[in-house]
Design brief:
- The complex is a heterodimer of chains A (about 140) and B (about 350).
- With about 140 residues, chain A is α/β, with parallel strands linked by helices.
- Chain A has a single domain, classed as P-loop containing nucleotide triphosphate hydrolases (Rossmann fold), CATH 3.40.50.300.
- Chain A has four helices and seven strands, in the order βαβαββααβββ.
- In chain A, strands 1-7-6-2-5-4-3 form a seven-stranded mixed sheet, with helices on one face.
- By secondary structure, chain B is of the alpha/beta class.
- Chain B is built from 13 helices and ten strands.
- In chain B, the strands form two sheets. A five-stranded mixed sheet of chain B has the order 3-2-1-4-5, sandwiched between helices.
- Chain B is globular and about 65 Å long.
- Chain B starts with a strand and ends in an 18-residue tail after the last helix.
- About 0% of the residues of chain B have low confidence.
- Classes of the chains: A alpha/beta (about 140), B alpha/beta (about 350).
- At the A-B interface, strand 3 and helix 3 of A face helix 2, helix 5 and helix 7 of B.
Chain lengths: ~140, ~350
């Protein structure tokens, strides 16, 4: 699986990287954003969502409580942080989202690999110092 | 005139009957807190199933407790968004069925507008005038929004969170430190025992709109604080306490929480309060607000209420009573009155809208 490694030095650079990643995405994709609390998953999502032309980066906020943010019929952002079992995730109707011609960004989705499609993109984020991030993009 | 309100946008199934926009005749909330406590959060599958199970008895007991019958109602108001589609659908579908069978007008209500109307309702029942324009801060686990509210209840969004909601930050910090769910009330209970000066957190620096909020940096700072310390022992003790006692008392928590952690909680809570109050003051000045309304689950926070009072602001700052701060249906009925007066009714095409906005 081909991986590409990036480094960003600030939040703004992470958002900019998101815009760049967005330019190379197909119209249908499931993207897992993988990293600990505070790793920058929502920050990178801001750039991707804006890069896809859905809404501005400032409009993208954490879906932890709301679970699903649909920024346009073709871009949605999901957070499974609060869910414990695959049965709970199943009731969110993710299959229907995966079947759409849409880009689906998922935080904490790696905890439920059996539910995630095989041909997914995985993006791993790790802090490097205070503001910096190392970001590894793995495509199927 | 009596309106029945129904709310099921997130984790509470609720129904209430409100009379003449000022008297809460009944308010019933089937709290799912005990179900969720086991899972560390609001679980949608459970939520949806619980809503389905609860909606009929909850509505029935709200109507009964109001000493009313379905035919006495003048309208049915229901939350149509924002929220989880599966949860919203339960309330919306049930409200439509009731409206159809009882031949009553149906009114879809925005959940966030409902929170603002919780305060309007209580002000009216207490004979207190709300001056306009008002500033409204709706602050909960899912929302942190500042609105300008005109006398005609037109809304203008002044600022909102760009990452985590304030209540979400409380909840994640609570979970991170082993206090279970929901973290906010426990942190609020324990914060007075800590010294907020012992831990320094910086305030968020906003580029662009200075009235927007950000709590993700603060959450990360708490995570770094925990990583820099050996907390395994106290975390294990607190988790064991939670297993023994689903809802520990303040003294039980204090027994398993060292002073350094209490200081952290105090500093965290004080920082969140400062972020909220600074933006209230700044935006209230900008719009020349005559009243400030604070509503949503975080409005229950005793530290926030105390700080708002101590700030001696030049306009009244109104909070709902705790029962009307968190999700409830009296606020939905209250908001429906205003739409009733304007003739803003919905037909059976009313949809549950997950991302419904207010402004």
């Amino acid at each position: 699986m081909p991986s590409t490694r990036f480094e960003t030095a600030s939040e703004d650079e992470t958002i900019e990287l998101g815009r760049r990643i967005a330019r190379e995405l197909p119209s249908r994709a499931v993207i897992l954003l993988i990293g600990n609390l505070g790793a920058g998953k929502t920050t990178l999502a801001k750039g991707i969502v804006e890069g896809l032309g859905a809404v501005a980066a400032d409009e993208v906020s954490s879906p932890t409580f709301t679970l699903i943010h649909e920024y346009s019929p073709r871009v949605c952002h999901i957070d499974l942080y609060r869910l414990e079992t695959a049965a709970e995730v199943a009731t969110l109707g993710l299959d229907e989202l995966f079947d759409r011609d849409a880009v689906v960004l998922i935080e904490w989705g790696e905890r439920f690999p059996e539910i995630m499609p095989e041909d997914r993109i995985e993006i791993r984020l790790e802090p490097r110092g205070d503001q910096g991030r190392e970001i590894l993009v793995t495509k199927p | 005139m009596k309106i029945l309100g129904i709310e099921s946008s997130c984790d509470e199934t609720a129904a209430a009957v409100v009379e003449d926009e000022s008297r809460v005749l009944s308010t019933v909330v089937a709290s799912q807190l005990d179900t969720h406590g086991k899972y560390g959060g609001v679980v949608p599958e459970l939520a949806s199933r619980e809503h389905l199970r609860a909606v009929v008895p909850v509505v029935r007991s709200a109507v009964e407790q109001a000493g009313a019958a379905l035919e006495d109602l003048d309208a049915i108001g229901v939350t149509s968004g924002p929220g989880l589609v599966g949860s919203l659908l339960v309330g919306v579908t049930y409200a439509k069925a009731l409206a159809f069978v009882a031949r009553k007008p149906l009114i879809g209500v925005n959940h966030i507008e409902g929170h603002i109307h919780a305060v309007v309702l209580e002000a009216r029942s207490g004979g207190q005038e709300i001056g306009y324009p008002a500033l409204a801060l709706v602050v909960s686990g899912g929302h942190t929004h500042l609105f300008e509210v005109s006398e005609r209840f037109e809304y203008r969004l002044l600022g909102k969170t760009r990452d985590d909601a304030a209540g979400e930050a409380f909840d994640k910090v609570g979970k991170l430190l082993g206090f279970g769910y929901p973290g906010g009330p426990v942190i609020d209970q324990l914060a007075p025992y800590g010294d907020p000066r012992k831990v320094r957190f910086s305030l968020a620096r906003m580029k662009g709109n200075p009235l927007d909020f950000s709590f993700s940096g603060l959450k990360t700072a708490v995570l770094r604080w925990t990583e820099a310390r050996e907390l395994d022992g106290e975390l294990a003790e607190r988790r064991a306490l939670l297993r023994r006692t689903p809802r520990p008392t303040r003294d039980q928590w204090l027994a398993v929480t060292p002073q350094s952690t209490l200081d952290l909680l105090a500093a965290f809570q004080q920082t969140v309060i400062e972020e909220l109050l600074r933006r209230i003051e700044r935006s209230a000045g900008d719009i020349d607000a005559q009243t400030v309304i604070v509503s949503g689950g975080v409005a229950c926070n005793a530290g926030l209420r105390k700080a708002a009072q101590a700030a001696r602001l030049p306009y009244p700052v109104l909070f709902p009573t705790p029962g009307l701060s968190t999700d409830n249906a009296a606020m939905i009925a209250a908001a429906a009155f205003r739409k009733f007066r304007r003739g803003e009714f919905d037909d059976f095409a009313l949809r549950a809208q997950a991302n419904l906005t207010l402004a």
